[in-house]
Amino acid sequence: MTTAPLGLTKAPAPGLANPVHDAQCIFKAAMNALARPGTLQTLHVTNLTAPHPLPRTMAALALALLDYDTPVYLDTPLAKSRDVVDYLRFHTGAPVVDMQADAAFALISTPEKMPPLSGFNVGTDEYPDRSTTLIMAAETLTNEAGPLLSGPGIKTTTQLNAAPLAPGFWHQMSANQTLYPLGVDVLFASVDQIAGLPRSTTISLKEA
Amino acid sequence: MSADTQTSLSPELETRRAAMALLANAPEETLKAAWDALDTPPAHTVIRQPETGLVMVRGRAGGTGAPFNLCEATVTRCVVALDTGETGFGQSLGRSKAKALYSAIFDALLQTKDWSEYVETHVLQPLNTATQAAEHQTREEVAATKVDFFTMVRGD
């Protein structure tokens, strides 16, 4: 006699092959990305299979950073995908929220259509750490062009260019910096690299 | 692991629950031997690698009182998917990752048409027999040392 499957009709994609070690490597890359804004950190996660349309690097960051304590906001293409929602819920247990302001993390797969940054949680004066960290997909991520960055963690200045982005993104990010110590933090994730843009970084829009 | 087991389940789920309970209580060596005995081990993917954590065990005084937190117990869990699509869950007390993995695979195999009979006869039934024999032996040993206390009426 065969037994019945539970509610799970389709198995989610496998998680990290070596959960402790892999998650630590990913966390270290994310930590270094935010400690040294603009630097490109390489993630070695080629063996991870993420459900479409969630990019692999974003999936890796999500598996390492999310847990049941961190409400996560998904942009429209991700939220519409049953596979992605099931995958994140199964592996991380993070509650998926509709309101950007409720989110501790936001996964943005199509940055060119993302909602304004001002809609996300910037934290409170008592707890500036309770803000949203955005994880944004990037097709290209380079240090070759783009706005000049300076501030803590950057020796002189550096440049960071991510594409695609929403038209007013850099202006919004610049406005975000003026809220310091409040504000959101951003992690860009390309195919195999990540870069951080914390709220403390000053953005100069005049290209060098 | 909820203390509430009042919910009525379909017969298939009841069977599965019983099978999972047997697998969870089985010795690791037995499950390993059963797995090694398979001529053509079915292809599978580990969805959630075996991981060890704590669960809160809750109890009710006398079985009917208000639930209270009794203690934490070490539990290892694992989830696998067969290449044919069935998903199997394994959970057991203790830290043996191999046991959780074998339990999950056998749970998945039980849901397939090709394997369920084999697992039923070659894994579950022997386990069931062994468990019952062990319980019977314990009962006999306990019964042999049974002491009746009685009090003489004093005075009068």
Give structural notes.
The complex is a heterodimer of chains A (208) and B (156). By secondary structure, chain A is an alpha/beta fold. Chain A has a single domain (19-204), classed as Rossmann fold (3-Layer(aba) Sandwich). Chain A contains five helices and twelve strands. Chain A has helices at 19-35, 56-65, 76-80, 82-92, 169-178, and strands spanning 41-42, 72-74, 96-97, 105-108, 133-137, 140-142, 148-150, 158-159, 161-163, 185-189, 193-197, 202-204. In chain A, the strands form three sheets. Chain A has a seven-stranded mixed beta sheet. A three-stranded antiparallel beta sheet of chain A has the order 8-7-12. In chain A, strands 6-9 form a two-stranded antiparallel ribbon. In chain A, helix 1 (19-35) crosses helix 2. The termini of chain A are far apart. Chain B has 156 residues and is α+β, with helices and mostly antiparallel strands. Chain B has one domain (11-144). Helices cover 45% and strands 26% of the residues of chain B. Chain B is built from four helices and three strands; from the N terminus they run H-H-E-E-E-H-H. Chain B has helices spanning 11-25, 28-36, 97-110, 113-144, and strands at 44-60, 67-82, 87-93. A three-stranded antiparallel beta sheet of chain B has the order 1-2-3. Chain B is elongated, with a radius of gyration of 20 Å.
Set down the secondary structure blueprint.
The complex is a heterodimer of chains A (208) and B (156).
Chain A: H1 19-35, E1 41-42, H2 56-65, E2 72-74, H3 76-80, H4 82-92, E3 96-97, E4 105-108, E5 133-137, E6 140-142, E7 148-150, E8 158-159, E9 161-163, H5 169-178, E10 185-189, E11 193-197, E12 202-204
Parallel strand pairs in A: 2-3, 2-4, 4-5, 5-10
Antiparallel strand pairs in A: 1-11, 6-9, 7-8, 7-12, 10-11
Helix pairs in contact in A: 1-2
Chain B: H1 11-25, H2 28-36, E1 44-60, E2 67-82, E3 87-93, H3 97-110, H4 113-144
Antiparallel strand pairs in B: 1-2, 2-3
Helix pairs in contact in B: 1-3, 1-4, 2-3
